[in-house]
User: What shape does this take?
Amino acid sequence: MRLAEIIELRPVPAAGLLATLTRRCPLSCAHCSTSSGPRGEDTPADALRRFVGGFTPGDRPEVLMLTGGEPLLRPALVDGLAGLAASAGTRTSVLSGMFFATDGKVPARIMRALRHIDHFSASIDVFHEREVPRAAAFRAVHRIMESGIEVSFHAVGRSADDPYLTDITASIRAEFRDRAAVLVNHVRPAGRAASWATARQVPPEGTGQRPAPCAMAAWPVVAFDGTVTACCNQRVVDARPVPDHLRLGHIAVDDWQAIRRRCQDSPVLRTIRTAGAGSCADCRSLARRPAELDAAERAGSRPAAGAMDTLGARLQRDAGAAALLRRYGSGPYAPLVLLGGPGDEETSP
Ligand code: SF4
Ligand code: SF4
Assistant: This one.
């Protein structure tokens, strides 16, 4: 599964599920905004297996994204979840910081964990390179690619004109001969360092720009404690309690079907997806402004609201992955998401 296919699905309600497997990570990247470290919490494995085991061929997400922390610290869980997902027809993608690859090798336990995986994405940036040398990360990604898995890189820089981004994207393109897509993002205080397509402030806080529809309110996110949130904004994922309008449930008590229905049918989420709710800070604090929350609820309950939501998602999906990343990633590098298969002719940033 190519990265572009995954990202095209990002604005489609319940087309994907992002699952945090752990907050643990052996690396200590300076920009990590998930507060991951050697002693982070693990998401309950049994509840995760039960939840993913509830996918059915007729009611399942298209894609399951496993993230962390470092999801490959739990290789047996990655293997088990991807196998359960595959039996229902859901494809699985893993995002890793490549902690295992300091010598350029991929240990057998990691290769086993990847046997049901459809896409592998490696995080790379100036901080990661201090921990895992570029050449070693490249060698390991080649090994994974040779096993038949589509691969991509998630590169992070300070800004679009950061020379590091020019260097790393050229290096990846040359090394992988344009067979690996690259998603480029900027370090953001509220972004999720270990997640592609982070929830950028929509619009940036304090800019006075008018609200814009939020495509990030479309995929449920399983947080480290099993809570399921409506978006991947790091403060929504980490802070407790989650505001009611951004909380979809909990994997210990809800199944996929219930979470999927709440995600698709919530009037407030429909309004956030189609009209926006201001910046992420405005959106998170909606409950403290009951009149605005009521207005969002009413707007999303109108008879046409569901059709508008579906149409908006379809238009964004049809516009393609590069168009989405012009809004949510690093604009000049957005075309690099199309690498990795046919259709990469127009990819020069
Ligand atoms: S940015 Fe990713 S690899 Fe680095 S410490 Fe955080 S979770 Fe680990
Ligand atoms: S906090 Fe609201 S505006 Fe921000 S990503 Fe989440 S749903 Fe979208």
User: Anything to note?
Assistant: The chain has 14 helices and nine strands. The radius of gyration is 19 Å. The CA atoms of residues 182 and 310 lie 28 Å apart. The pocket of iron/sulfur cluster (ligand 2) is lined by residues 199, 202, 214, 216-217, 230-231, 233, 236, 272, 277, 280, 283-284 (CB under 6 Å).
